[in-house]
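Collaborator request, handled under Task 6.
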Amino acid sequence: MRICNPNMIETITRVSSFKTDVIFMQNRTMTWTLKTFKELTIDELHDIIQLRINVFVVEQNCPYPELDGKDRLAYHFFGQNNEGKIVAYTRIFAPGDYYEQPAVGRVVVDSKHRGDGTGYALMLGTIEKMKVLFGDSEIKIGAQKYLVQFYEKLGFTNTEEEYIEDGIPHVYMMRRPGLL
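Structure tokens returned to the collaborator:
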């Protein structure tokens, strides 16, 4: 597979199996991995929770219960840099585990990797894994409102159904089947 976003990244090339992808981006390598909760190592779980807390609680100054009990239900898709540090992550839910449709949550990219294409690679990989896991079906996300344009570039449509979660404006977005 080749993915190209001329504004953010050069062509991405990938060496892949279903569970692990190695992606070469702008002279750096990112390893992308999909695991169930039980497949995560203690170090991976620690690093994922640390990344989520660093961004969602500390950086966004939003104290909330990060461990919500839903991690056990989810697939965990994450990207590691050349040093093995987890720098990007999403939580993937099967239909009925979070919403009626397959869903994505806890989309997070380390601040040092924002604006370099890592977020796009993360979401494109997430969407691809979801297609394999659940078929080419609608995907739902509860997005922070300031990220609507980012998700629209990935084929998500704003439902205009806004809500406040932990003091932060969010909106539900849907991605219809059949998009590349």
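The cover message to the collaborator said: "The beta strands are 2-5, 9-16, 20-25, 28-36, 75-80, 86-93, 103-109, 139-144, 156-165, 168-175. Residues 2-135 form a domain with the Aminopeptidase fold (CATH 3.40.630.30). Please let us know whether this matches your experimental observations."
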